[in-house]
Amino acid sequence: MFVSLVVVTVFMSALLLVSAGAKSLRTRHITEQMSTLGVPQGMMGFLIGAQIAGAAGVIAGLWWGPVGIAAAIGLTLYFAGAVAFHLRVGDRKGASPAAVLTLASVALAVLRAATL
């Protein structure tokens, strides 16, 4: 089961870092999407930081379980918020990836708790 945890952790961390990098570049696609969702530009730094902290937390959690569980719970809340923001503006297509990442974050928490 620990191997599954490592695979999901590495995948999630890579995805979070790529997403944080894209947000930090503030490409037109990202800024338009955030504007459509009603996310203020001033929140971008917080979102980037949350993604980087989440990636670092789940990686650190491979060595210290409680940190990994806390990070996975934080990511679950982060992505559940993303689902809510997408659904609030009627963007069901954009809500789907966020919902999958919410479930992946829950899986990370469960896997880490199971391997303590």
Automatic annotation (TrEMBL):
The chain crosses the membrane at residues 44-64, 69-89, 95-114. It is found in: Membrane. Keywords: Membrane, Transmembrane, Transmembrane helix. It is a multi-pass membrane protein. Its main location: membrane. The keyword Ribonucleoprotein does not apply. It comes from the Bacteria. GO terms for cellular component: membrane. Pfam families: DoxX_2 (PF13564). This is Integral membrane protein. It comes from Streptomyces filamentosus. The lineage of its organism: Bacteria, Bacillati, Actinomycetota, Actinomycetes, Kitasatosporales.
